[in-house]
Amino acid sequence: MSLDAHLVRLHLQSPDPAALAAFYARCYGMQQRVIGQTHLCEGPLRAVHMSPGQANQLHYALWACNSQAAWERLCAKTATLPHVDLSGFSDLPQGALGLRDPQGLCLVFVPPQAPPAPTQLASPLPGATNQHFAIRTQQIETLLSFYTEQLGFTLSDRVQDDSGKLTACFLRTEHLHHCIALFGAPVNCFDHQSFETPNWADLKDWADHMGRLRTEIVWGVGRHGPGDDVFFMVRDPDGNLAEISAEIETCASDRPVGIWPHEERTLNVWGKAIMRS
Ligand SMILES: [Fe+2]
What is the Å distance from ligand 1's center to 170 Cα? Predict the structure, then answer.
């Protein structure tokens, strides 16, 4: 059975969280506030938090279960795993469940949430919601086993080289094709986060918005093979990729796992790709 949860937000570490917050507020249409050392950027159904730390690393990733039954299933499934003490995570709600993956990434889950109050912005942009993120890892097989077997994520697609070695994989927690992607790489670090906008016309409006800000598109416009989503990416001041995507595949629960070759055309069926290995 699917884990049945959705990504709510990421919390990034940064040597200059104020500069990072200014970037996301400007480029992704969010309002900023500061609580202690944490900068919070929040917009309609999207948010990203940041606090002091090493660049290109996540402090945590937060998911909300879509039903009380899903929350209870997750709590039961993870009861024997070590839990993270979240008392020092001041921007998390009470009662959150914290776990660490084998690479040390903090994964936080909360019960079903009431819809947030609408956030008013001075210049409305098309909708875009936190949808997925990706990490680079030296332990891709170990992480794949952890996410699927220990947490209940579902493998949507795998990318493999000519020898059958896994080089990337895409995992879902509900009907959308992936909420996390793992890229085999020489380093362990954060890769990108994506904000999903409703359609192609809205993606164009986001690209025009980046153009007006003179924020360069560094990859795309393209279409990913796994997920079938159209996309473009910019870079934040720490060098993290940040994506706008649309049209991500909706998966039936019995969808077979897809297998893709390790080549640029898999990551961008329209042409060039950023290869992580
Ligand atoms: Fe992505």
Answer: 10
How many angstroms separate the alpha carbon of residue 79 from the centre of ligand 1?
Answer: 31
Q: Structure tokens of 199?
A: 């359609």
Question: Ligand 1 centre and the CA of 230: distance in Å?
Answer: 10
Give the distance (Å) from ligand 1 centre to CA of residue 241.
9
Q: How many residues in total does the chain contain? A: 277
Ligand 1 geometric centre to CA of 120 (Å): 27
Helices (H) and strands (E) in the chain, counts: 5, 16
CATH 3.10.180.10 given to domain 5-110? yes
Ligand 1: centre distance to CA 199 (Å): 15
Task: State the span(s) of the chain assigned CATH 3.10.180.10.
Answer: 5-110, 129-267
CA distance 204 to 133: 21
9 Cα to the center of ligand 1, angstroms: 14
Full-prediction pTM beyond 0.85? yes
C-alpha–C-alpha distance, residues 179 and 168, integer Å: 14
**Check: CATH 3.10.180.10 for 129-267?**
yes
Ligand 1 centroid–CA 18 distance in Å is 24
Q: Cis peptide before 221, with omega less than 30 degrees from 0? A: yes
- Residue 63, helix vs strand vs coil: strand
* Band of pLDDT at residue 1, cut at 50, 70 and 90: low
Mean pLDDT of the chain: 95
Residues with Cβ < 8 Å from 57, sequence gap 6 or more? Answer: 12, 13, 189, 190
Q: How far is the CA of 243 from the centre of ligand 1 (A)?
A: 6
Work out the number of other CB atoms within 10 angstroms of the CB of residue 250. 11
The pLDDT score that the predictor gives to residue 275 is 86
